[in-house]
Design brief:
Blueprint lengths: L1 E5 L9 H15 L3 E7 L11 E4 L1 E3 L7 E3 L4 H10 L3 E4 L4 H12 L4 E4 L19 H12 L4 E4 L2 H9 L6 E3 L16 H10 L8 E5 L8 H14 L4 E5 L5 H10 L6 E5 L6 H6 L3 E4 L8 H8 L4 E4 L15 E3 L5 H10 L1 H14 L5 H18 L1
Parallel strand pairs: 1-2, 1-6, 2-3, 6-7, 7-8, 8-9, 10-11, 10-13, 11-12, 13-14, 14-15
Antiparallel strand pairs: 4-5
Helix pairs in contact: 1-13, 7-11
């Protein structure tokens, strides 16, 4: 098949959507399909990449690290026929998603849509939610999804949300898979872990709480920083290492300073995805307090690295992380410190749960993910 993936975010940007799109692209090509990427231009992107079409773009005012396409290419639209696409698969509701829908309608190609983002959790970026309200975000999501032949939800949480806001189209729950090899402990030596710790200013004996992802308000990283005074009472040399970048970084640094834990909270910045496995491996426990995830790829990556995980209770983790079995789960922000302290002070128990967690995610392999998506394409194409 010839498949077009339409996404506003793509390499060299790093986020969950990019990870999902890249994984799907890799798996589809491994199966022998032709894959074409349609995305926004990025000044840091390679000038030429096979089968990647970039549209003119500009940075978002309220999210300057993200870019948005500002116009469509009539030439590209005219040449689209030559690509002989069998499937249009959109991964955004914004400009590239709209472009994908136009391609679908003009050339009569069935469109699949993956719903990656709970927009209600992001409206605060635009005039503090006074311009786009949660109600408007729901309506926008409903209309966008009802234009597709099939909607793909990364988790049951997303499926239930979409049904709840009135999406009538068929919805398939297909968790995004990952390639386990970059995170596999056997592929990351002890000396490499030691060098990585030294590089970011850690002592080899420091107990490390690792968190990886975009530094944004909805990720609730403030919960992790707020717990640190309590954690340090029990584990004085513990360090919270937050890998990533984003609009909330300065606020998080100010919070650490105000609590007097600035020497115990490190912000090394973003790291390239191909090297991210070793940053998980420096952690004695991976922690996240976010409840805005549609699936939450970072906790799956941590489990693939056999790092114990501690997460805030959320439907996106259900069925994978079970408290006391495959990881640690805390209900309220004020409960985070006790769970983290337990994980750091009971290493044998934590590592046992990490092994069980690794077993629990075997169905999330990249190959399984690619096959599931391919099967949706085939079913839609046959019914078209």
């Amino acid at each position: 098949m010839n498949i077009g993936l339409f996404t506003d975010t793509y390499y060299p940007q790093i986020n969950g959507v990019v990870t999902s799109v890249k994984m799907l692209e890799t798996q589809l090509r491994a199966m022998g399909h032709q894959v074409f990427i349609f995305t926004a231009n990025d000044p840091l992107a390679p000038r030429h990449a096979d089968n990647v079409f970039r549209l003119p773009s500009m940075p978002l005012t309220f999210l300057p690290n993200h870019r948005v396409a500002i116009m469509y290419s009539p030439k590209l639209m005219l040449n689209m026929k030559k690509l002989r696409l069998d499937i249009v698969h959109t991964h955004t509701e914004f400009p590239l998603g709209i472009f994908g829908k136009l391609v679908s309608e003009i050339y009569r190609i069935p469109m699949i849509h993956t719903y990656h983002t709970m927009y209600e959790d992001y409206v605060h970026y635009i005039l503090n939610g006074n311009l786009i309200t949660p109600k408007l975000a729901k309506r926008f999501s409903r209309v966008s999804c009802n234009r597709a032949k099939v909607v793909i939800a990364p988790a049951d949480k997303t499926y239930n949300y979409l049904r709840g806001i009135g999406v009538k189209r068929p919805i398939k729950t297909i968790p995004t898979g990952i390639d386990f090899s970059p995170f596999c402990p056997e592929n990351i030596s002890a000396s490499e872990i030691a060098r990585t710790k030294s590089e970011i200013g850690l002592n080899l004996t420091d107990p490390v709480i690792i968190s990886i992802g975009r530094l944004a308000k909805e990720k609730s990283l403030d919960v992790l920083i707020n717990m640190m005074p309590e954690v340090l009472k029990s584990v004085p040399n513990a360090k919270l290492v937050i890998i990533g970048d984003g609009p909330f970084k300065s606020c998080l640094k100010e919070l650490a300073l105000s609590l007097g834990v600035q020497n115990s909270v490190l912000f090394p910045g973003a790291r390239p995805w191909e090297a991210i496995g070793k940053y998980y491996r420096i952690g004695d426990v991976f922690a996240t307090a976010s409840t805005s995830e549609t699936q939450g790829l970072t906790y799956i990556e941590a489990m693939a690295a056999k790092v114990p995980v501690a997460v805030r209770k959320d439907p996106s983790f259900e069925g994978v992380i079970k408290h006391g079995e495959t990881g640690y789960v805390f209900d309220k922000p004020q409960d985070a410190a006790a769970v983290i302290i337990k994980a750091l002070n009971n290493k044998a128990e934590a590592l046992y749960m990490a092994d069980k967690g690794y077993e629990a995610i075997q169905h999330l392999s990249a190959k399984h993910f690619g096959n599931n998506i391919k099967n949706v394409y085939m079913a839609v194409k046959e019914a078209w």
